[in-house]
Amino acid sequence: MEPYRLKLKEALEAIKNSELSPVELTEAVLSRIEAVDEKVKAYVTVTKEHALKRAHTLEGSNEALPLKGIPLAIKDNLCTEGIRTTCSSRILENFVPPYESTVTMRLLDAGYVLVGKTNLDEFAMGSSTENSGFFTTRNPWDTERVPGGSSGGSAAAVAADECIAAIGSDTGGSIRQPASYCGVVGLKPTYGRVSRFGLVAFASSLDQIGPITKTVEDAAILMNIIAGHDLRDSTSAEVECPDFTSTLGRDIKGLRAGIPKEYFSEGLDSEVEEAVKKAVSVLEQEGLEVEEISLPHTEYAVATYYILATSEASSNLARYDGVKYGLRVEAKSLLDMYLETRSKGFGQEVKRRIMLGTYALSAGYYDAYYRKAQQVRTLIKRDFEDAFKRVDVIITPTTPTVAFRIGEKIDDPLKMYLNDIYTISVNLAGIPAISVPCGFNSEGLPVGLQVIGRAFDEETILRVSHHYEQLTEWHKRRPEL
Amino acid sequence: MRYEAVIGLEIHAQLRTKTKIFCGCSTEFGSEPNSQTCPVCIGMPGVLPVLNKRVVEFAIKTGLAMNCRISPYSRFARKNYFYPDLPKGYQISQYELPICEHGYVDIVVDGVKRRIGITRIHMEEDAGKNIHERDCSLVDLNRTGVPLLEIVTEPDIRSPKEASAFMRKLRTILRYLEVCDGNMEQGSLRCDANVSLRPEGSEEFGTKTEIKNINSFRFVEKALEYEIKRQEKVLSEGGTIVQETRLWDSERGVTFSMRSKEEAHDYRYFPEPDLVPLVVKEDWIEEIKSSMPELPDEKLKKYTEEFGLPQYDAELLTEERPIAEWFEEAVRLGGAPKEVSNWMMTELLRLLNENNIEIISCRVTPEHLVKIIKLIEEGKISRNIGKKVFADVFQTGKDPEEIVKEKGLVQISDTSELQRLVEEVLKNNPKEVERYRGGEQKLLGFFVGQVMKASKGKANPKAVNELLRKKLSS
After folding, report:
1. Among A43, A105, A457, B63, which residue's beta carbon has the most beta carbons within 10 A?
2. Is A324 within a domain?
3. Domain-located, residue A96
4. Whether B90 contacts chain A with CB within 8 A
């Protein structure tokens, strides 16, 4: 098998057993990128020289590292010291951070090789990468379709074997939705599980970094590296991390799963519904106790999310003003410099969200929008807490449809926002969820299964999804490129 | 119609922590522009604030000293506005849930005690500085992220004099706590004043204006006096006050309009999602409480009631903590409070002033003063010599007893030695002796002076007096 096709676990073993060297693996991945990225367009920046140098250094060292020589792709909203970090925005097109994000620092300490920074919807705002300030990434299963977003570059890179695994970020579904569209695994950890230091903020109270991988086990391996308390992020939780791989392989007998009825209603594609229901019955046969549950405030999730996320974004993006770094459009007055820099530097969707958020926070509207949304957020969180008194996991489709065509929804923001209808509540509640491949539709496009867990209980969702993966072959299919 | 002024103050105090409020950069003043910055305080993408615990401690201390309720649960909030010296485009402050609320500070003006309510005290970060040159503007972000306390009073102040007294009291408290150096000229203590007028006896508030840029203690009173007169004139001419922000121009001694209410910013405050709510446990508050110094009010009470000092002296001695501590140390070493106080008021504070030095770098120690007082009490030196010795210690830091010994300043009380001096003086001034004996008794002073001069000030004046009277009448 070509080395770039290896799963993370396999690659680690191959390197450990000296069947493969870090340089060989890195070279293989880099040539794969050269061969197919023209079609996929997953990467904003390919760090070829850096990667080769790093692979050589690692190869020359005897140190045993948990990720030694593994080529990974990093979403281009995680700061990498000395390496351009753009957020796929014109305003940061030439921004080179003088610091490393905590997650990539931990990966560096573990011996990974950065092969490139992947494309995203500008500042992670979108569900298709069509909002990238540079270009749209293609879905490797059908290059006329979107890979999902905002971590579309990372998901497409994993699906197209342009990296061994990748890191994404998820604010309203940005890891799980593209993982689902691209037929790979995507885990959004509990809010606070992984440090956000160095992740360029979209919506601080919702953003969370997580792995996008070829298998559930690979996701668990990466979680072991990136998770854990960080003094530089006050919102990172002081909770001890388990060995995330330790529950993999345990059976699921007696575990209880809830199927929320609100998630199987209007707008859900029938083929997706069928695939998910089939997956549930596969698990049921394995001893999973399944029952229907209700998450009554589900219908308010999208509205709540688009008030809170845009409010935070309107403030988080104020720093891009042309004064200190990034794009500056020279103008006669200070106000004109602000206006012209931000007009030119930000794309349409980012501007839309800044305006929405600014409005929601304005004097006289704050109580009706922001405060109300916070209250609803509490209710949504409570829905899950109540449900988790009866069940251990909640199973849903990751998305209502399979990957849509490029351009299909770009003029209808509301339609686009509804893509995240099944993923958004999880961010509002701050709990973990994983998307795993659970089938293909008649057009050969992947369908994702979402397994949601209790706060800080990634282990159980990893255990259930891994068990499912072992029983099925979906994750073994790879797109033809 | 007679008007009453209603004044509320909003004070910003820069905290004397070593590092900034949300990062590890130094707060040192006066360094090379932008040399004390890091990705966090200059607001680079993806960085996060981490709260400096020391800042919370200082805020709690200040709250306790101002009789506030310390909130067990408080939150940071973002105040959003664009300005080049504000790198994130928002200031991290507190809004809905500040750390301290419902306090008060007592002041005394013209012998009358007044209680000024403290609405709230909250923590926030300072902004940087814009520097405007002829053809460009530059930004220095060294000050960005320096911790500030914002202290807001109730509209309880009724005159410029009270406002000024409040500011001085506030400064004293902050300096006692060693949380702020209280320097208005350098901007480490800043004051904005809200002022309105209402007919005397009325309970309703009039329309207020806010005065900014009051950058010295002197100007607190001056700016308010001007603004009150201005409003009085507008009202008495039948006009109405416009709610606005006005700037104090110290050179012209006037306030002028900066922006109206309509132009006011909408800061779009919302809870800071990058920081978790601040939970302060009761035992931490207790720990801080027990580490606090005795405050000026308690000291003042002790000085007047226990030590019997006059109010004025007690106020002066308690204004600065090092001075009060110096005083108390001298008393502890056995100096009579009244005597120590007199020496400090007349000699020490004067010399400190004249030489422009702080008491902490002064060479005279409380021990020195107690020794000098003792030397006088024991009759070893005169009070005048004592003052000279004090001045000498102030210059050299030498032990007073040694100075007395070295310079031979011990008072001459020995009768035979004095007799010799007196006889010599009488012998050298026969005309004056004749005039004295002829009835000009006031010449006694002249003879005393001559003897003192001959003894180089060391003669015991009392003994000299007696001897002279005896000799001249014989």
Report:
1. B63
2. no
3. yes
4. yes
Most B CBs within 10 A among A169, A321, A336, A350, hence the mutation to make, goes to: A321
Cα radius of gyration rounded to whole Å, chain A: 21
Q: How high does pLDDT run on average in chain B?
A: 91
Of B50, B88, B89, the CB nearest to A234: B50
Confidence of residue B413 (pLDDT cuts 50, 70, 90): low
What top-level class would CATH report for the domain B415-473? mainly alpha
Rounded to 10°, the helix B430-437/B444-454 angle is 150
pTM for the complete prediction?
0.91
User: Which residues, in sequence order, are CB contacts of A37 under 8 Å at separation 6+?
Assistant: A43, A46, A160, A162
Residue A19 CA from chain centroid, whole number: 31
CB contact under 8 A, A234 and B51: yes
Catalytic amino acids of A?
Answer: 75, 150, 174
ipTM, two decimals:
0.95
The nearest CA of chain A is from the CA of B122 a distance in Å of 20
Q: How many CB atoms lie within 10 A of CB B432?
A: 17
What is the residue range of A185's domain?
A: 3-254+391-476
Q: In chain B, whose CA is at the least distance from the CA of A95?
A: B45
Q: Please report, for the domain that includes residue A217, its CATH number.
A: 3.90.1300.10
Predicted confidence (pLDDT) per residue in A36-78, tens digit? 999 999 999 999 999 999 999 999 988 899 999 999 999 999 9
Pairing relationship of beta strands A112-118 and A70-75 according to DSSP bridges = parallel
How many other CB atoms sit within 10 Å of the CB of residue B240? Answer: 9
Q: Can you tell me the distance from the alpha carbon of B404 to that of B408, in angstroms, rounded to the nearest whole number?
A: 6
Specify if A436 maps to a domain.
yes
Domain boundaries, chain B: 3-286, 294-406, 415-473
The residues, any chain, with a CB within 8 Å of residue B178's CB and separated by 6 or more, are B16, B321
Q: pLDDT tens across A83-105, in order? A: 999 999 999 999 999 999 999 99
State the Cα–Cα distance between residues A87 and B106, nearest whole angstrom.
Answer: 55
Nearest-CA neighbor of B121 among B107, B102, B145?
A: B102
Q: Which residues of A touch B97 (CB under 8 A)?
A: none
Work out the minimum CA distance from B90 to partner chain A, whole angstroms.
Answer: 7
Statement: residue A12 has pLDDT above 80: yes
**A138 occurs within a structural domain:** yes
Residue contacts between A and B (CB atoms, under 8 Å): 103
Which residues of chain A have a CB within 8 Å of the CB of B145? none
Contact A325 B44 (CB under 8 A): yes
- Residues A341-355: tens digit of each pLDDT: 999 999 999 999 999
Quote the minimal CA–CA distance from B118 to chain A in Å. Answer: 26
pLDDT tens digits for A180-231? 999 999 999 999 999 999 999 999 999 999 999 999 999 999 999 999 999 9
- CA–CA separation, B45 and A204 (whole Å): 12
User: Contact A318/B39, CB-based, under 8 Å?
Assistant: no
Chain A residues with CB under 8 Å of B139 CB are 323-324
Chain B hits for A315, Cβ within 8 Å? 78, 80, 89-90, 268, 270
Beta bridge partners of B248: B255
Residues of chain A contacting B, Cβ within 8 Å: 77-79, 85, 87, 92, 95, 97-99, 101, 196-201, 203-205, 231-235, 311-312, 314-315, 317-321, 323-325, 334, 338, 358, 361-363, 366, 370
pLDDT, one tens digit per residue, over A22-41 is 999 999 999 999 999 999 99
Reference A310, options A348, A368, A359, A344; nearest CA is: A359
Domain count of chain A?
1
Q: Are A112 and A72 within 8 A, CB to CB?
A: yes
Please state, in angstroms and rounded to a whole number, the distance separating the CA atoms of residues B180 and B189. 8
